[in-house]
Design goal:
Blueprint: E1 2-6, H1 18-25, E2 29-32, E3 36-40, H2 43-50, E4 56-61, H3 64-73, H4 77-92, E5 96-98, H5 101-109, E6 114-115, H6 122-132, E7 139-145, H7 151-158, E8 163-173, H8 177-188, E9 193-196, H9 199-213
Parallel strand pairs: 1-2, 1-9, 4-5, 4-7, 5-6, 7-8
Antiparallel strand pairs: 3-8
Helix pairs in contact: 2-3, 3-5, 6-7, 8-9
Pfam family, one: HEM4
Keywords: Heme biosynthesis, Lyase, Porphyrin biosynthesis
GO molecular function: uroporphyrinogen-III synthase activity
């Protein structure tokens, strides 16, 4: 049985994608098709803020992409040295709140200790943060995407916990999405199941999938 996963494959250096691996153990033939493309922005502003941990009470990450933005900053030698020599240690004394294991593992890669990864979504992470932070304390720095949901900022604001958001990436359609979908359907036929991983993924791909599936769309889980 075939499953179409509308997501980027996991970094090749870290082994096989866990979705492909897990589904294959259950006899399912899974295929990954990237749906989204990301443009990173405001990286100088991001590192300027990271250079002043004394201004903040901690960090908040709800997307692996925000960590990718930091890793791009750290590719520059002078910034990497500044991070390694002092900034990493100073930030490690503050909480780094995250949603999910993928984001948590990237936080660990830059030398920080994630908290709240078991939350699973922004609503539960907001509750977790509110249970640990005091109102009117130093702002939490929140590098995020242009399409971020407002649940977390709104919840923290209602509890008096300051949050400073900075947009560090924008989401667009993957340039080869329609080509990849057409190729998949022509070569492998209509999958038994399709898995979406984000609202943007639905927005960019659903209409094309419906056209390719035709009258059989109702048979797809």
């Amino acid at each position: 049985m075939k499953v179409l996963l509308l997501k980027d494959p996991k970094d090749k250096d870290s082994g096989p994608d866990p979705y492909i691996k897990e589904l294959s153990l259950h006899g399912l033939e899974a295929t990954l098709i990237p749906v989204l493309s990301f443009e990173f922005v405001s990286l100088d502003s991001l590192f300027e803020k990271l250079s002043h941990p004394e201004r903040y009470g901690g960090l908040v990450f709800t997307s692996p992409r925000a960590l990718e933005a930091i890793k791009i900053c750290l590719k520059e030698k002078s910034k990497n040295e500044a991070w390694s020599e002092s900034l990493k240690q100073r930030w490690s004394n503050k909480p780094a709140y995250v949603v999910g294991n993928a984001t948590a593992s990237l936080v660990e890669e830059i030398g920080l200790i994630p908290q709240g990864e078991e939350s699973g979504n922004a609503e539960k992470l907001a509750e977790f943060i509110c249970s640990r932070e005091n109102p009117n304390s130093s702002s939490l720095l929140f590098p995020c995407g242009a399409l971020k949901r407002e649940v977390l900022p709104t919840t923290l604001k209602e509890k008096g916990i300051p949050l400073e958001s900075l947009t560090v990436y924008q989401t667009t359609q993957h340039p080869r999405l329609q080509e990849s979908l057409s190729s998949y359907f022509s070569q492998q036929g209509i999958p038994a199941s399709i898995v979406f991983f984000s609202p943007s993924g639905v927005k960019f791909s659903l209409e094309h999938i419906q056209k390719l599936s035709g009258d059989f769309i109702n048979q797809v889980k």
